[in-house]
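2024-03-11 09:14:02 INFO queue: dequeued item PTHB1 protein, len=708
2024-03-11 09:14:02 INFO validating residues
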Amino acid sequence: MSLFKARDWWSTVLGEKEEFDQGCLCVADVDNSGSGQDKVIVGSYMGYLRIFNPHPVKPGDEVQAEDLLLEVQLREPILQVEVGKFVSGTEGLHLAVLHCRKLCVYAVSGTLGNVEHGNQYQIKLMYEHNLQRTACNMTYGPFGGVKGRDLICIQSLDGMLMLFEQESFAFGRFLPGFLLPGPLAYSSRTDSFITVSSCQQVESYKYQVLAFATDADERQETEQQKLSSGKRLVVDWVLNIGEQALDICVVSFHHGVSSVFVLGERNFFCLKDNGQIRFMKKLDYSPSCFIPYCSVQEGTINTLIGTHSKVLNVYQDVTLKWATQLPHIPVSVKVANFQDLKGVIVTLSDDGHLQCSYLGTDPSLFQAPKVESREINYEEMNAEMKELQKIIREATKTQDILPESEKQRDLTVTAEVSPDLDAESQATASEVKAETVPSVSVKITIQSRVAVQKPSLAVCVQAPLAVTCDQFSFEDLEPESSETVVLSVFLKGNCSPSELEGNCMVSYNIPTELNPEGIPRVAQCSFSLPLRLVCLPAQPSKAAAQKLTIDTNKPPVTFLTIFPDFVDASEGDQANALGFQFLTGSKTTLLASKTSQRYRIQSEQLEDLWLIAKELTRRLEEHFKKQNCKDFACTFSGSIPLQEYFELIDRHFELRLNAERFRELLSERAVQFRAIERRLLSRFKDKTPAPLQHLDTLLEGTFREVSA
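2024-03-11 09:14:37 INFO prediction written
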C-alpha cells in the first residue's frame, strides 16, 4: 500500500450494474473544439456511450450536470472506443465505436446553449460496417503510410484481421496458428501490426505482407492447411515472452526512440522495433492496466501501471519513481489535458468508477478550523438570515434550470408484468419448434407531473426474447397526465435466454422560459418476466449428465412456497423434485434435499443449468427477505465444470467449420452445375430426357455428399 493517495480532481460513478473493460475508455478532443482540452469518452457493455468534460470540484461536492456532454444508449455492447481521422475528405477527429458485429463511426458536435447548464451535444452516424465475424478489439493508424487519415483494423474472435479504408472494406486475413485473440497494436514507424498469440509470443506482421497475402475469402486450401498455414502469412519477427499479455502499446516521443511496450501477467517488457528487448521488469504484484505517457529524460520513458491491489505505480524505464493509492481497481488508465491542468490521470474500474486525479503529497487529514472567540450578535444574525431566506425565495421563483426533485420526479415510467400468460399468444415469426409459444403482456405507464415535449418510449429485451413493438411515440403531455401502452414479450429464437429481464426508457424534453425547445431528460425502469414464458412444468428426471449443487445456510423451503406456478397444489409440501421443460426441447430437474440445506439442479446439457439456478437463488432471496432474514446466502462448494464448458465451446466451433464447409461445397457444385448446363444446352437442344437424367444423378450424388 502506498503512503500517498491519488488526489481526487473529479470523479463519478457510471450507471447501475454496468460493466467496463480495457477498451471502454478513451480521451481526446473528440468535438474538434481546437482548445486542446480533452474529453473523456466511455462505452459500456450495456451499450451506453457517455462523453464527459470534467471540471474541478471541491472535496465533497457532487459532479455538475453540465460535465456530462452526451449520454446515449446504442443498444449493443460497446467493446472499444477510439478517436481518429476516420472520415474521408476531412482531417477532423471522429469517434469509432466497436460492437460485437458492427463498427460505427460518429461525428460529435455541440450546439450553443441558452441556459445555465451549458451546450447541447449530439452524435451523427457518418458510416457503419456490418461485420461478418464477431469482433474482439481494434487498432488504427496511417496504414501503408497514408497521409492525413487513419485506417481501422479489427481482430475477430476466430483470428481474422479485417482492415477498413474508412468507408470501405479493404481485405481480411487470418493469423497463422491462431487459437485465442490477444491485444493488438499498430506501429506507424515500421508499418506493422503487433499482437501476442496463444503461444505466448509477441508477433509482428507487416501491412504490406498482409495486403499481398492470400485473401481470406478464397477457399482453395483444406481445413488442415488453413489451421497450419494461416493463409500463408509470413511473420516479420517473433519474441517468446513465456506468458500471456494484458495489453500492448507502441509509443514514439519527440526525443525518444520508438518502442513497443508489452504488459504481461508477471513482467513488463520494452522492445525495439525489430523485436529485441530493450529492458524488462519483473513485477511482484498482479497488474491490471498500463500506459507509457511521456519521456522526461532523453533515452527513458515513463509508464503508469495499475494493479489489482488498487495501487498506481510510476516507472521511469525499470525504476519505480512513485506509488499512489487509488479508490478502485483500474481496468484502463489514460493521461489527459483539462483546462489549464495537464497530465491528469484518468482511471476506470470494471464497475464504472471514473476518476480524474493527480499525484501529490497533501495529507488526507481533517484539520479543525480555528474557533473565533468573539461575542455573538443575535440581531445581526437574524437580519442576515432573513436576507438569505429572501434571496432563496426569489431564486426559487425565477430559477430556469429544473432542479432534481428528491420526493417526486418530473416524469416516471413504470412497467407491470401480467401475472398470467396471454390467453391468446401474441408471438409472431418465432423460430421455436414448440406447438405453442406463449407470450406475456407488459403494461407500461408514463406519468408526467409537468408539461413534457416529444416523449418517446423504447422497450428492450435481450435476444432470443422479443417484443411485439419496441418503439412508441406520443403527443406532448400536459401536467398531471399519463399515457399507457400494452405490449407482449415472447421467445423468438430457438434457444434459452440468459436472463428474464427487460428495460423501458423514456426520452423527453422539459420546456423552460429561456429554452422553449426543451431540456432533454431520460427516465427508465426495468421489469422481470415469468419463468413460464420459456418453460413448462414436466416430470422430473432421475438421471442427468450435468449436475450442480447449491448450498444454503437456512432450512430448505418447500417448492410449493417458492415455485407455486410449477407445483400442483394437490401435492402440498411433499414435492421435493420439479421438472422444467424448455420450449426449445431440453429438460432440467430441480431437487431439494430432505436432510440437508442443499438444492441440486441437473440436466443433460450444461447450458440448461444457468436459468434455473438463477431463478432458484432469486426466489430464495425474495422469500427470506420477506421473512426479515438478512444473513441468507447461497454458496457453491463444488468444482467449476471447466472441462464441460470447454467441450461446449469446441462443439460450437465445430458447427461453424461444418457450416463453412457446407457453403464451400454448395459454391463448388453451383459452378459445376452451370458448366454442365452450358454443355447440355449446346449439345442437346432437342433431346431433353437424357441430359436431365444425368443432371438428376449428379444432384442426387451432391446432396448425398452434403449430407455426409
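2024-03-11 09:14:37 INFO annotate: Residues 218-231, 398-407, 686-708 have pLDDT under 50 and may be disordered.
2024-03-11 09:14:38 INFO item closed
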